[in-house]
Amino acid sequence: MKRTFKIAQLWTTELLLAGVAVAVMLTVTGCSRPPEGFQGYVEADMVYISPVLGGRLEKIYINRGDFVKKGAKLFDLDSIEYAAAVAEAEANLRKVKSDLNDLLKGARPEEIEAMKDRISKLEAICKLAKIVHDRNILLFEKNIIATKDYDTSMWLQIQNQWDLAESKHNLIIAQLPARQDRVISAQEAIKAAENTLAGAKWRLEQRFVSANQDAFVFDTVMHNGEYAAAGTTVIMLIPPENMKVRFFVPYPDMQKIHPGDKIEFYPDGSVERYQAKVANICLKPEYTPPVIYSRDSNSKLVFMIEADVDPQCAFKVNAGMPVTVKLLNAGKNEL
């Protein structure tokens, strides 16, 4: 009697296990592809806008929910100190350029004119000395003047010619540029001043932050008057091309989907359909049951797929929105 009861008990247990297995198989088979599509949601890759250099926020030009065009102003930081640095660098550049010009020009024009006047005066003195000496030559030949007077006029003429030659040489030197090493040093000073000015202008430009691309303003994290440290997020943007749809597909359907395939998606209750293109298929399943991989258990694997939303549709959907996804041209890899 006891043996009969044990056999009946075993049969009952086996029937229950068989019923559970059938139910699991029916559930797995029915989940392969829901007739209404796959479940997913709209996701967005945020662009976090932060200052390169810290400072106090003077003006935020946009608000949460705005749409900004490329080049639109986002926010300004205090810039008085940086504008003063640019002005100082510009003044220093003008100075070193002027120093180089002075070195290349030689003496000042006034000094050049004074040297030329001296040369003209010495030329006149030399002419007079020559006339006096030529006369003394004739008088000396006739023994009218003493040898002393003759020698004096001769050496005076020679001395005046030496003075004239020296003045002309000094004029040539005064018109020459500075020594080559000083010119090279001045040129290097100009390059350094130009680099300093470029750096000051770049730092000043960083005080005025603009949008690098069209985008939605998801949030403004800080407010006017607050101090924004370098690298601290001030504004969060969502470019339309950064909108994505993430949905989950069972293993049997995942094999039919490839990057580039088109999909359509729509929020619950919406009659309008939006377009997207498969961009990424997750390499690992999102859910793996604690069983050995086999043909019978593969259908339990679920993979996440990301699709880039058509930028024209990105204006009409919001991040975080649950959607239903249907495949278009799956497996044809059409653009």
Main traits of this protein?
single chain, 335 residues, alpha+beta, OB fold (Dihydrolipoamide Acetyltransferase, E2P), 3 domains, six-stranded antiparallel beta barrel
Gist of the model:
By secondary structure, the chain is of the alpha+beta class.
Strand order of the largest sheet: 1-10-13-12-11-14
Strand content: 15-25%
Q: What overall geometry do the principal axes of the alpha carbons give?
A: rod-shaped
Order of helices and strands: HEEEEEHHHHEEEEEHEEEE
Q: Number of helical runs?
A: 6
Structural category: alpha+beta
Low-confidence stretches: 1-35
Helix content: 40-55%
Radius of gyration: 47 Å
CA distance, first residue to last residue: 73 Å
Overall pLDDT confidence: 81
State the domain count. Answer: 3
Question: How many strands?
Answer: 14
Largest sheet: 6 strands, antiparallel, barrel
Question: Care to describe what's here?
Answer:
By secondary structure, this protein is α+β, with helices and mostly antiparallel strands. The chain has 3 domains: 30-45 and 240-328, Elongation Factor Tu (Ef-tu), domain 3 (Beta Barrel); 47-77 and 208-238, OB fold (Dihydrolipoamide Acetyltransferase, E2P); 85-202. Helices cover 44% and strands 22% of the residues. The chain has 6 helices and 14 strands. The strands form 3 sheets. Strands 1-10-13-12-11-14 form a 6-stranded antiparallel β-barrel. A hairpin with a 6-residue loop joins strand 11 (262-267) and strand 12 (274-281). Helix 2 packs antiparallel against helix 5 (180-205) and helix 3 (109-141) runs antiparallel to helix 4. The model is unreliable at 1-35 (pLDDT under 50).
